[in-house]
Design a protein that fits this description.
The chain is 38% helix and 14% strand. By secondary structure, the protein is an alpha/beta fold. The protein has a single domain, classed as Alpha/Beta hydrolase fold, catalytic domain (Rossmann fold). Helix 4 crosses helix 7. The termini are far apart.
Length: 302
């Protein structure tokens, strides 16, 4: 797909074996630095339940074009561009339509994708019937308010100095053994599923996206501020399932719960033993996740 500003985005779609008996359609929005292949098992599970799945590599991620030639850096000037891309993707595939209860349209997003999903629902009411946000980036986990304030000032200072394309602290070396070990301890308990992306990188190194720049962080913080404005959540009227990880250290669960309280129809489930990537967790945690999703969608997996 070609974006409004001329970037080429990689997209994909799958349909269940019996398309005539499809239960609905899922639009999947990925997390920061992720790519389509990372969701292969999650997508397979949706297909097994009879849903079609549409997704894309966000600009600057996976095999989609980005704003910088240096793929070691993840940069976007505004999260609004992600939202424009998502809407154009949905329109291109004819998924914008009036509600059809017999074939629901479901928006699913993880982390950064959960953030984008919530903003999309706010900006485009009436498109989706239900939404599922997993560990949504309602805010970044800074540890405490002091660190959050300092981090915000550091980002602003570096943006003022024109360093929007420079790596933020700790983001430059994303492939070192130490960084990989730390990432595992943040993301999942399942070593085999964690290793999936390393296999895909070995098959196609171009899938790898580097760490966040000050520009990406600035865009993220501005988008987060928009989510925290008055009446943002109240306007999202469709049912939302919010899945949170009990061992979360990447996004802020407190702010996520605060936003969930403001949503008119939100079901929150906290998976106490899960780390950030619930969909890449151990079998027992993933099964609990799917039990939540199946109940939310009224599905019986025979």
């Amino acid at each position: 797909m070609v974006t409004r500003d001329g970037l080429r985005l990689r997209t994909a779609q799958w349909h269940p074996a019996d398309r005539a008996d499809s239960r609905g359609t899922v639009v999947l929005l990925q997390g920061h630095r992720e790519f389509i292949e990372k969701y292969f098992e999650f997508i397979h599970d949706w297909l097994g339940r009879g849903y079609s799945v549409y997704t894309l590599d966000l600009r600057g991620q996976g095999l989609s074009d980005g704003h910088l030639q240096d793929r070691r850096k993840n940069y976007v000037p505004s999260f609004d561009l992600y939202l424009h891309d998502a809407h154009d993707f949905i329109v291109t595939h004819g998924l914008v339509r009036k509600r059809q209860p017999s074939s629901p349209l479901i928006l699913v997003g993880h982390s950064q994708g959960g953030h984008l999903a919530l903003r999309y629902l706010r900006d485009h009411p009436g498109v989706f019937d239900k939404a599922i946000v997993m560990a949504p980036m309602v805010n970044i986990h800074f540890g405490n308010e002091v660190v959050e304030t300092v981090a915000s000032w550091v980002v602003r200072a570096n943006m003022f100095m024109g360093k929007h394309e420079s790596h933020a602290p700790g983001q430059a070396m994303k492939t070192s053994p130490l960084q990989r070990r730390l990432a595992f301890e943040l993301l999942t308990h399942d070593r085999d599923r964690f290793a999936d992306q390393d296999y895909f990188f070995s098959q196609n190194p171009a899938l790898h996206t580097g760490g966040a720049t000050y520009g990406w962080l600035d865009a993220a913080l501005k988008s987060i501020a928009r989510m925290q404005t008055a009446l943002f959540a109240e306007s999202i009227s469709i049912p939302v399932l919010m899945l949170l990880a009990g061992q979360e250290r990447i996004v802020n669960n407190v702010d996520a719960l605060s936003l969930a309280d403001q949503l008119p129809d939100c079901h929150v489930v906290l998976h106490e033993q899960a780390r950030h990537e619930i969909y890449k967790e151990t079998d027992d945690i993933r099964q609990a996740m799917w039990d939540d999703i199946d109940r939310f969608l009224g599905y019986r997996f025979l």
